[in-house]
Amino acid sequence: MEKGTPITIDLKRDGVQDLSGHVHQLPCCVKSTAPASVSHYFKPKSTGIEVEGLPLEEAYFRGRKLDGATIGLPDGYCGFVLGKKSLGRKKSSDISEDNSNSWEMKATFQKVTYWNHDCLPSQNDDFLRAFHWLTVAKALHNPVTPEDLASTSFAL
Questions:
Q1: Which of 75, 69, 77, 71 is nearest to 116 (CA)?
Q2: InterPro entries of this UniProt entry (predicted)?
């Protein structure tokens, strides 16, 4: 991929799968892109316990116990799963599909389950606290009117 090459992302929602309840943020790195029977081995279950307003779930991954919570994305936000767009033509020697800068939406989600392996989920988890920045970003990007400036006093 050359520097300065435009990237296209197709976000058409026609016939796109909703993965809410099936998106997980694991506290590890899996160095594989091969298909796997995840649902056969990874079986989260509800514990019926609530911690700081978060419904606790538990699962095991490679023999390690994980504690997690499913949270909804903030209002006005949606998660996307993107994949390389099929070019619909045979690979040529000039352009391979792997180097394509065209992406398309494969699925959407409104909920994500995040997992901890060494502590229970809480409102102080970095993953949850990252969503607080969305409020800050919105405030920073809202237009400021002359009335807002006039009503603000600066004490220097």
A1: 69
A2: RNase_H2_suC
The residues, ordered by sequence, that sit 6+ positions from 64 with a Cβ below 8 Å of its Cβ are 117
For the segment 45-95, what is each residue's pLDDT rounded down to a tens digit? 999 999 999 999 999 998 999 999 999 999 989 999 998 887 765 555 455
Give Cα 132 to chain centroid, integer Å: 15
What is the amino acid identity at position 13?
A: R
Q: What is the 3-state secondary structure (H, E, C) of 49-118?
A: EEECCEEEEEEEECCEEEEEEEEECCCCCCEEEEEECCCCCCCCCCCCHHHCCEEEEEEEECEEEEEECC
User: What's this model's pTM, rounded to 2 decimal places?
Assistant: 0.75
**Residue 128 three-state SS:** helix
What is the torsion angle, in degrees rounded to the nearest 10, for the CA atoms of residue 34, residue 81, residue 26 and residue 21? -110
* Beta partners for residue 59, in sequence order: 66
> Would you say 126 and 27 are in contact if contact means Cβ atoms under 8 Å apart?
no
Question: Is the CA virtual torsion 113, 118, 122, 127 positive or negative?
Answer: negative
